[in-house]
Amino acid sequence: MTETTSGPARGSRAKGSKANKGLRIERVHTTPGVHPYDEVTWERRDVVMTNWRDGSINFEQRGVEFPDFWSVNAVNIVTSKYFRGAVGTPQRENSLRQLIDRVVKTYRAAGEDNGYFASPADAEIFEHELAYAVLHQIFAFNSPVWFNVGTKQPQQVSACFILSVDDSMESILDWYKEEGMIFKGGSGAGLNLSRIRSSKELLSSGGNASGPVSFMRGADASAGTIKSGGATRRAAKMVVLDVDHPDVEAFIDTKVKEEEKIRALRDAGFDMDLGGDDITSVQYQNANNSVRVNDAFMKAVESGSKFELRGRMTGEPVEEVDAKQLFRKMAEAAHVCADPGIQYDDTINHWHTSPETGRITASNPCSEYMHLDNSSCNLASLNLMKFLRDDDKGNQSFDAERFAKVTELVITAMDISICFADFPTEKIGETTRAFRQLGIGYANLGALLMATGHAYDSDGGRALAGSITSLMTGTSYKRSAEIAAVVGAYDGYARNADAHNRVMKQHSDANDVATRVDDLDTPVWAAATEAWQDVLRLGKKNGFRNAQASVLAPTGTIGLMMDCDTTGVEPDLALVKFKKLVGGGSMQIVNNTVPKALKRFGYQPEQIEAIVEHIAEHGNVVDAPSLRPEHYEVFDCAMGERSISPMGHVRMMAAAQPFLSGAISKTVNMPASSTVEDVEEIYLQGWKLGTKALAVYVENSKVGQPLSAKAKEEKKAEAPEPEKVVEYRPIRRRLPKGRPGITTSFTVGGAEGYMTANSYPDDGLGEVFLKMSKQGSTLAGMMDAFSIAVSVGLQYGVPLETYVSKFTNMRFEPAGMTDDSDVRMAQSIVDYIFRRLALDFLPFETRSALGIHSAAERQRHLETGSYEANEEQFDADALAQSAPTAEQGAQAASHEEAPDSKDVQRTVAEPEAPAPAPREAHNSTELLEMQLGLNADAPLCFSCGTKMRRAGSCYLCEGCGSTSGCS
């Protein structure tokens, strides 16, 4: 995409720049003389976001401008999160163009001022290509870029920070202050407390030291206060302690003891749900904890030998422990409360590009950024599905060439941002400017694997993921070396040159020995091999502009901005998704990746349609018609009937890790049946397979989370004491301004009329209009009133089949012959109307249970006997002249009192008996819970009240885009 040239460059040069050189920028997506904005169709939309718990409006901005292909969710989140200016004022941004221009033009100007481009023409191409890529959701910068760049506030571009703390009260108090300022800005930080002397060591005054665990209490309280004092999300922080620290056992136990406290308080009647009134009394809940283990400890675990805990001041052994027992203690704690996670110190530092400056001791809160203390990293993620190509013959390929060119573009922009970026502390600013750490990554891997017919837990899936990761990082470092030729290597490179080039060789060697599996990954591996060869050659010649290039972040909010089905390295959550509609309301849809995968396997269109219908009904592929069992694994998801095994997640992390500068944000979800031994095995295999860090979560292990409806009912049964009475009311779902409809003219017993039935965009009946006789007549007035009553009921969730069962067979004049071939006789106008509506809007199974069939269906039954229905049903459908028989009356009554179980499941608004109010899904996580009857391990969003979902090691709200992490 780019090359260096000796032409003149505009503006001042950065330190270490070489005169008369600049980057040539190649066009990839754009056309000369045409701005990217002019190539799309723009439309105006209204953004109104509510809190589903009380119906209050969280955010409202009307008339915002976006491309017509952007989803409702992406528009809502970008408008509410990233548009700057006070709502309701002229200064408020109201178009995606303004947002992109604010950021992209700032990057262009900084690039020109710092001598990155060979000419103004190259700067313009850079601007247009960057704008095109954001506009078409090909990539996105991390959230702080969209928050801050181009505004009057500090130009903070980094989401991830690592702090440091020494063994002095001054340093500890600085830690509290620095962490608080980072939280105030909506970001997160991590640090290692292992320099603080343990509680088993003496102070200079002769007394016993408090130990790092005691100081964690103050930091935790500070984080909780800052969160509740202003922000609507939990503070994001990581606390790390080395495994050889004498207080490591107390560190492991911190959250275990608090979990016991939560259980005791809950049993005593206190509100201990996450976000509950009483949960704030529990300590250590605002941080993720991780133990930093080394190879010596892990080998001691394997051999069952002793391991020494060493004093912080002298480095001498303080205590000797059984390594296997300590490892068991970690696994037991993680099994109970998901903490601590584990970080593999020797693996992390084996891939460290700057060891002469200092070791890597900690990570950011989500565990993907790992580098020097007092540093930061700005992130950006590529949408992998944008690089999947399908030709006319149905063949698929990954566009490695275009992927590499976009990677070059994004890495260039990310490095430019450090030139103008502001930082929360001077120490962080100095380190980041000196080492220029970047964190390019990707999202939608799970969707890409499924669309290409690869199981997430398969050799082919891991090979494709590894090849893409290798190409991304290799291209990034190649680009970094090219930039170094123009504006100089990072300041710390000279001191660390040997180590940096050694790590580049390690990446290249890993690429060379990686397994090639099929026609999709092999060309990508070839492109990656070429990129790494360039890295080794150019690096020795020019050095590198960046000490770090890539990570795999959660991609929470920006994943929604790009309309990604999956986040980061995660698999798909489920096969059926929750989708918001432009006119309001929502619908559930089968993932678009499913038909792509079936097409790759050679299934015919009619087979694909049948399989998709099966998934829509059952939520999984088990027993789907014509689907071969050997293809089931391709559709395995993070949750559901066929969920991916915990080791499947670890193996995927291991496939990508050798090709990343940093690490991977991911939590390994484990079923409730998992044992402590299972957790031990995950931690052991994570080390053996070369991952840098991981965490586990055993389903339903934590108390401090929203309880499932079932769990609350059981609790109520056990504790009959009076509870708060909650009144549930249905919510009216209005139709959009433009709505599809069917107008039917009819004649019943000589009386003529017209019926107009309008539906929601997702094909559910929403209103009925009936016109009979002249306006102003009694009959016309009653029909209008009747229509309104039925329409309002439909919009409040009354199922159509309820109306059909009530009003069919109602007898009054006019009655008799009709002009409708499907309903030849009607016992009244109301009888005809609801039979016609049933035929137009109800599925066959529901109509059949109510005895309503079309003429074609009745004929097919007479000819083939294919429908197993008794004669009385068809007699009723033909509307025999006599009144319903006793048997028919009983049958109708049974339909009213005990609807078919499938109907109850499909229309949750119609309970069979007095029961809790039906749940309404507000995102994919809640939809999945309703389908499977399980409880996801996620908290409720503090902003809008919907259930969040996992995104790496953090949580993401699909409703409003809030995250619990730092992305």
TrEMBL record:
Biased composition (Basic and acidic residues): 894-905
Keyword Disulfide bond recorded: yes
Keywords: Cobalamin, Cobalt, Disulfide bond, DNA synthesis, Nucleotide-binding, Oxidoreductase
Listed GO MF terms: cobalamin binding; cobalt ion binding; nucleotide binding; ribonucleoside-diphosphate reductase activity, thioredoxin disulfide as acceptor
Reaction it catalyzes: a 2'-deoxyribonucleoside 5'-diphosphate + [thioredoxin]-disulfide + H2O = a ribonucleoside 5'-diphosphate + [thioredoxin]-dithiol
Membrane-spanning intervals of the chain: none
Family membership noted in the UniProt record: Belongs to the ribonucleoside diphosphate reductase class-2 family.
Name the record gives this protein: Vitamin B12-dependent ribonucleotide reductase
